[in-house]
Structure formats: C-alpha cells, structure tokens
Amino acid sequence: MSTQLRRERHSVTDLKIHLVCVTKYRSSVFVAKSLVLIEESFREVARKMDFQILEFNGEADHIHVLIEYPPKLSVSSIVNALKGVSSRRYGQAGYPKPYGKDALWSPSYFVSSVGGAPIEVLKQYIKNQEKPS
Predict the structure, then answer these.
(1) Which of 44, 49, 96, 98 is the most exposed place for a label (fewest CB within 10 A)?
(2) What is the pTM of this model?
(3) Catalytic pick from 25, 69, 99, 125?
(4) Domain count, the chain
(5) How far apart are CA 83 and CA 10, in angstroms?
(6) Across the strands, what pairs with 109?
(7) Is 125 a catalytic residue?
(8) What pLDDT, on a 0 to 100 scale, did the predictor assign at position 2?
C-alpha cells in the first residue's frame, strides 16, 4: 500500500483505521446485494464528511472497512455516521433487521489504527534524537 499523505492548510497527516462492525446479536442478515448497499452508504457518508473508504468487505454478520480520515474528525463521529446512515438505508430498502428490531448494528465496534512504523522503531527513533547542548 503506497502512502498517500493528506495535505491540508495546517497539517500533513496519514491517519488510517481498520473498522469492524457487527450486526445486532451477531445475526446473519447480509447477502451480496445488501453488502453492496451498505458499501454505497458508507462511501456516500465518506464523501460528505471528507474521508475515504480504502477497502470494504463483509460477511453475513459483520463488515470490515479500511478508512483514511482527516484529524478534524473523531473516530466515534465517523462510526456513528456510517452506522446510522447505513442502518436507515438498509431498512428503507426492505432488508430484514435482526429479530425485527429497529437497529441493524450492535452498538459496539472494533477499531485499530494501521500503517506507519512499528512502535519499537518509533521509540528508538525518538530516543536517538540529538539533544541540544
């Protein structure tokens, strides 16, 4: 994966996360067409909020997304927007929600920062900086 830096007026960043969202009660409700709808919803939210979906895939009960985002956005605001819009669109399209509930997604999620150098390399780099005399 090549490193594309986000250049803005006062910052240069490379912020990427791996997001995993599971359906309510881990129900197997997704089929190929519904995953396409979820991905389209995610990409529309990304366009409106100014972040990028780099990769998207899913199984019957969860999805994985690789996201690149600006520092002005919090991870929780990104996740809330993605889950809210996709759940609404999923219901509007007539797909079944878990056990007939209103919510498509479990309220929890997994997210991990990705990319960059390993932590030990960064620690060593910082430790080896020249101190002024």
Answers:
(1) 96
(2) 0.88
(3) 125
(4) 1
(5) 30
(6) 21
(7) yes
(8) 55
Among 60, 56, 78, 61, which Cα is nearest to 69's? 78
Residues 73-115: tens digit of each pLDDT: 999 999 999 999 999 999 999 998 888 778 999 999 999 999 8
The answer to whether residue 44 is domain-embedded is yes
- Domain assignment present for 132: no
Q: Residue 78 domain-assigned?
A: yes
What is the domain-level CATH number for residue 111? Answer: 3.30.70.1290
Q: Is residue 1 part of a domain?
A: no
Q: What is the DSSP letter of 114?
A: -
Instruction: Work out the widest C-alpha separation in the chain, in whole angstroms.
Output: 69
Domain containing 80: what range? 6-127
Among candidate residues 69, 62, 63, 16, the one with its CA nearest the CA of residue 47: 69
Letter for the amino acid at 98?
P
